[in-house]
Amino acid sequence: xxISPAGPKLPPVLExxxxxxxxxxxxxxxxxxxxxxxxxESQCFMNAYRGSSAHQCTMCSGWxxxxxxxxxxxxxxxxxWNFDQNAYRYIxxxxxxxxxxxxxxxxxxxxxxxxxxxxxxxxxxxxxxxxQGQFFAIETIESSYQFKPLDDLSTETLFExxxxx
Length: 165
Hints:
Blueprint: H1 12-21, E1 29-31, E2 34-35, H2 44-55, E3 58-67, E4 74-84, E5 89-92, E6 102-105, H3 107-116, E7 128-131, E8 134-141, E9 144-149, H4 155-159
Parallel strand pairs: 2-5
Antiparallel strand pairs: 1-6, 3-4, 3-6, 4-5, 4-7, 7-8, 8-9
């Protein structure tokens, strides 16, 4: 069975939150980090790790939601950033984040990586696309991309290719 929320059509970010929240213990939330952009491109985990060490911040995980150029589809890319407890604000050290990206806090991802760190080959889950009410994982196969329909948005499913058995 494919995932398709029942009821009236929701905006893509709310549809994602509603669907993903069913698999999370911690509440998902939309947040607005201050973009510092002093890290390395495509290295969000390491940027957040260095930010936590250098600035005594907590690492946060979640998603960047961005509309795709093809119709009403949205992409959800797993991402890492920081929370500065002293200033009580989120900060992102990663550069080249799209201006219209919506940050969705999903700390179940961070908890999962802590618990399963010794079995993960990546601390960044696979990206997702939401198109016409269906979620797809973006799979890289021989330097091209394929969309794989997902039955659920559980954390295990999102990290499945990177979890050693």
